[in-house]
Write a structure and sequence with these properties.
Blueprint (H helix, E strand, L loop, with lengths): L3 E9 L4 H16 L4 E8 L6 E8 L2 H8 L2 H10 L3 E9 L4
Antiparallel strand pairs: 1-3, 1-4, 2-3
Length: 96
């Protein structure tokens, strides 16, 4: 197995910043408790408060795939569908 990192960025639609923040905060604890989760940290951009960034570390791509299919992530995606203007997920492998 090879450890991977994820940078997940979500930008809230204007007026939905706090709803999105609360939803994001709600997935932190269950995600950290998942098998294979090494780090799962939520950040908010100081210069663009509509931008939220997760920095995650997972034991493997398989662990990340299980996370992506988890019930709490499915519920989160459904809840935030109308609150997000843009999102990106970058799956990374450390090279040095």
């Amino acid at each position: 197995m090879s450890e991977i990192a994820v940078v997940a960025i979500s930008i809230a639609k204007a007026g939905f910043e706090e709803q999105l923040r609360e939803a994001l905060e709600g997935i932190v604890a269950p995600s950290r408790a998942e098998a294979g989760a090494l780090q799962y940290d939520l950040h908010r951009d100081l210069r663009e408060p509509r931008r939220f960034v997760f920095y995650e570390r997972w034991e493997s791509e398989e662990a990340l795939a299980v996370h992506a299919q988890s019930a709490h992530i499915a519920a989160y995606r459904k809840a935030i569908a109308d609150w997000v203007e843009h999102s990106e997920i970058h799956v990374l492998k450390k090279i040095k």
